[in-house]
């Protein structure tokens, strides 16, 4: 049974050449019949090993080395059946946003790195004390 669905942005910093990049992963948590929890990671609609392990970390595009990622952002996705989640009835298949079938899939690495906000980078002008 699926217990949680989320998108996780994972940041990687190559320990060899110091190149930094980030990748978005779709993550599903499952509970099996023995009550054990499992995670499934997907990148660009393909199941991949966990990016938090050396085997699952993507290679650096500059030097090819692999470094374990770290979580920098997370977006939970409501599960079906959540009574509090807003929902809209989908009309017949012919008229409901037909363009969604041909829309291109965004690539997991196709976004800029998270940057600190300008306000957080500015020193405080408030007097101390």
Write the layout of secondary structure elements.
Elements: E1 2-13, E2 20-31, E3 37-43, E4 46-48, E5 70-77, H1 118-121
Antiparallel strand pairs: 1-2, 1-5, 2-3, 3-4
Which tags fit this structure?
single chain, 129 residues, mainly beta, five-stranded antiparallel beta sheet, 1 helix, globular, disordered C terminus
Using the CA coordinates, give the radius of gyration: 20 Å
Proportion of helical residues = under 10%
What is the typical, i.e. mean, pLDDT? 81
Which series of helices and strands comes N to C?
A: EEEEEH
Structural class comes to mainly beta
Largest sheet: 5 strands, antiparallel
Strand order of the largest sheet: 4-3-2-1-5
Count every helix, treating DSSP H or I runs of 4 or more residues as helices: 1
Compact summary:
The protein has 129 residues and is mostly beta strands. It has one helix at residues 118-121; strands at 2-13, 20-31, 37-43, 46-48, 70-77. The relative contact order is 0.23.
Describe the fold and architecture.
This protein has 129 residues and is mainly β. It is built from one helix and five strands. The chain has one helix at residues 118-121, and strands at residues 2-13, 20-31, 37-43, 46-48, 70-77. A five-stranded antiparallel beta sheet has the order 4-3-2-1-5, with no helix packed on it. A hairpin with a 5-residue loop joins strand 2 (20-31) and strand 3. The model is unreliable at 117-129 (pLDDT under 50).
């Amino acid at each position: 049974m699926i217990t949680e669905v989320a998108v996780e942005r994972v940041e990687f910093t190559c320990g060899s050449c110091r190149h930094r990049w980030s990748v978005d992963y779709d993550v599903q948590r499952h509970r099996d019949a023995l009550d054990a929890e499992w995670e499934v990671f997907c990148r660009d609609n393909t199941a991949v090993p966990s990016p938090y392990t050396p085997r699952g970390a993507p290679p650096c595009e500059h030097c090819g080395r692999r470094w374990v990622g770290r979580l920098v952002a997370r977006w939970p996705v409501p599960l079906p059946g959540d009574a509090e989640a807003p929902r809209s009835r989908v009309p017949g298949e012919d008229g409901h946003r037909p363009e969604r079938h041909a829309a291109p899939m965004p690539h997991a690495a196709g976004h800029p790195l998270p940057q600190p906000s300008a306000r957080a980078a500015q020193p405080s002008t408030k007097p101390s004390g």
